[in-house]
């Protein structure tokens, strides 16, 4: 991705594109797709969803890195995409990316049965504004969503989120815990289900191996009968060289391990009965080992197939059991989220930061504000006394500046 951004001009030249235009100084686009707490999409589903969002932005042909995280209460995937095309070197047209993603997200939610009222309302409002501007081009554009949160407000919100986590950690032990007997019974049942699945697979493997053994049993019987008859013929009937010559000649391919014996080799076996008997016993052992290997390979193949099915089923069972075990915990956490809200966190921060020796004038000034505004202002005031002193100093300087420069104050200082 770095090389693509570095060699953008060369890529344009090689692909025959116009080299003019402003250089792309920020070729990386980063955004995040998040699922709701309690949803457990598979890695494959998260990957396909991320690729679908890239396609919605027209970036499906660009280089991208995707990283799925589970470090929060909700699963999410980060997407970092190079806005420079790796072949043409052209910068992607990224106008209205948030609107495109919002419409794509609405389609995704509709497909998967998720209903986000605010997103639907925002997109409908955008359609109305677009239709009105098309009818009247002079109409002023009005943004649907509010402006991006300022950095100071973001840090203030972060303080509130940390307080919410602290309050949840304090309240969680006080909430009713899942019944230990129910959890114990559930654990025992889960263990029994897994053991039953394992024993069922063991029984299926034993039955399959027995079936293979029964299928090979006639072959073993015929092979042993043929070997016994052959050995008996060599010991009794083939005592004369002429009888041995007939036997060796008829079995020359087999006695040569697939390659016909030479005249010299056949002569040695005919003239030496002991050597012939040893050669025949070696061939018989080889044939028995070959049949044993074939039977073992069939048993191994069918056993591996059954154990592969077991691993797939046991993974599914474990996931289902995990969902059952954590269902009660998730229900308690959902209730905890309804108890510990932003309002409660603000009240807690307000109570912690209120001085114990408030003077009546300060108390009256605080009460003069509306209750929500007072609570919020106190809650988000995370600055130290030294910082507040600096703020007061800046305010005094601005008042003096206004007196010296009437009419030039735009009221934008923080």
Structure, explained:
There is one protein chain. The chain folds into 3 domains: 2-115, Alpha-Beta Plaits; 180-339, no CATH class; 384-414. The chain contains 15 helices and 3 strands. The chain has helices at 2-6, 8-15, 43-56, 97-111, 117-135, 151-171, 180-237, 241-250, 252-255, 263-271, 273-339, 342-353, 360-368, 371-380, 385-404, and strands spanning 28-34, 64-69, 76-82. The chain has a 3-stranded antiparallel sheet, with helices on one face. A hairpin with a 6-residue loop joins strand 2 (64-69) and strand 3 (76-82). The protein starts with a helix and ends in a 10-residue tail after the last helix.
Condensed summary:
With 414 residues, the protein is mainly alpha-helical. Helix content is 68%, strand content 5%. The chain folds into three domains: 114 residues, Alpha-Beta Plaits; 160 residues, no CATH class; 31 residues.
